[in-house]
Specification:
Blueprint lengths: L6 H18 L5 H30 L3 E16 L4 E6 L6 E2 L4 E5 L2 H25 L2 H4 L1 H26 L4 H32 L10 H18 L2 E3 L4 E4 L9 E2 L4 E18 L11 E6 L6 E9 L25 E8 L12 E6 L7
Antiparallel strand pairs: 1-8, 1-12, 2-4, 2-7, 3-6, 4-5, 6-8, 8-11, 9-10, 9-12, 10-11
Length: 365
């Protein structure tokens, strides 16, 4: 029994040791918790400051706008002559090359105009032949008039001699004088007709060597032939057909009224409307990056091609009038043309919404 007495003190030592360990792992004291809160409060502003600084640095050397749209050259095509459409060779979205037939207008009325012009040429040529063989041009009328003058003058001389001797009447003498005057008037008329005939056969300085009547008839024929050729409306350039719903066989079209649009997809560019405050460091030639809402994964490279000569409001139909007491300053937008340098893997459609970033420092392209 005496040998078992030392065991209880050992157990008490283990309990005291466990209590000491538990005391070390207990909750932190109030000064430690206060220090942690202060560190957290300092860490959040520092992180916000670092994030703001990084964002500010990332914006340096570039300007951005999402007010941008893809543009393509468009040509509104109309017929130069009016008429009825008899043939349509293209449809909506078709790709055409320069010179391809788009539609054809009924050519029969214009063929009749060509035939009418040919008849006018023939008539003018026949008229020239008739004038060349006219007696007024040949001088026969002038010779006849001169013979009548000579005969009237000889008769007048005889009547005058008889009048002086008293062997004729005053009436016969005056009749002889009248015959001379009448013959001279006939000569004057014959000479005038001869000059008129020569004038009709003469050529002017505008069309040397060609009679004006024939020249006018030939011009009429060329005009009719030109109108006939214009009945076939062809593409002035390569592109894609748009707004072709008005091309219907049998439809009557008016000259000069657009009926179809041709879009040149190979000359795409972006018109980006930048704030006037973004133009301080922007110059022509600076690199740009283009993104499209329709193709989120597509990024194209480009450059600043030109900066607009005026703000958008200056070229609007009804420009703003700021000469009032209620004027509020509004940041204006200036159109900037962005040329596309890289080839797109997707079809570029006119009017697509775009996002443009211009690198004013020129370092990124």
């Amino acid at each position: 029994m005496a040998e078992a007495d030392p065991l209880p003190p050992v157990a008490n030592e283990e309990v005291s040791t466990s209590a000491a360990i538990g005391a070390d792992e207990g909750p932190p004291s109030k000064p430690q918790r206060r220090l942690g809160r202060v560190g957290l409060m300092l860490l959040v502003p520092v992180l916000l400051l670092l994030a703001g600084g990084y964002y500010w640095y990332s914006l340096q050397g570039k300007v951005y706008t999402d007010n941008a749209y893809l543009k393509q050259d468009k040509v509104s095509i109309s017929a130069e002559v009016g008429g009825r459409i008899i043939d349509v060779a293209v449809g909506e979205g078709d790709e055409v090359a320069a010179g391809d037939l788009l539609f054809r207008i009924d050519p029969e009325p214009f063929r009749l105009q060509v035939a009418q012009a040919d008849a006018a040429i023939a008539g003018a040529q026949a008229n020239i032949t008739a004038l060349a063989n006219d007696s007024a041009l040949s001088g026969a009328d002038i010779s006849s008039a001169r013979e009548r003058i000579a005969f009237a003058q000889s008769r007048l001389q005889r009547q005058q001699a008889l009048w002086e001797r008293g062997f004729t009447t005053k009436a016969d003498f005056e009749a002889a004088q009248h015959s001379v005057a009448q013959a001279r008037e006939e000569l004057r008329l014959a000479q005038a007709r001869s000059q008129e005939a020569r004038a009709r056969l003469a050529t002017g300085s505008a069309v040397p060597g060609q009679n004006p009547q024939v020249a006018a008839a030939k011009v009429q024929r060329e005009t009719a032939q030109l109108n006939l050729s214009r009945t076939e409306v062809r593409a002035p350039m390569a592109g894609r057909v748009a707004e072709a719903d008005r091309l219907q066989a049998g439809q009557q079209i008016v000259a000069g009224l657009p009926v179809v649009t041709l879009v040149e997809s190979r000359t795409s560019f972006v018109e980006a409307n930048f704030k006037e405050t973004d133009l301080a460091d922007m110059t022509v030639g600076q690199p740009a990056e283009i993104r499209f809402d329709a193709y989120p994964d597509l990024v194209l490279k480009g450059h600043v091609a030109s900066i607009g000569a005026g703000t958008g409001s200056e070229f609007s139909i009804l420009p703003a009038q700021n000469a009032t007491g209620n004027w509020v300053k509004v940041t204006q937008r200036v159109p900037v043309r962005i040329a596309i340098d890289s080839k797109s893997s997707r079809a570029l459609i006119a009017g697509l919404s775009s996002e443009v970033t211009v690198f004013t420092d020129g370092r990124k392209h």
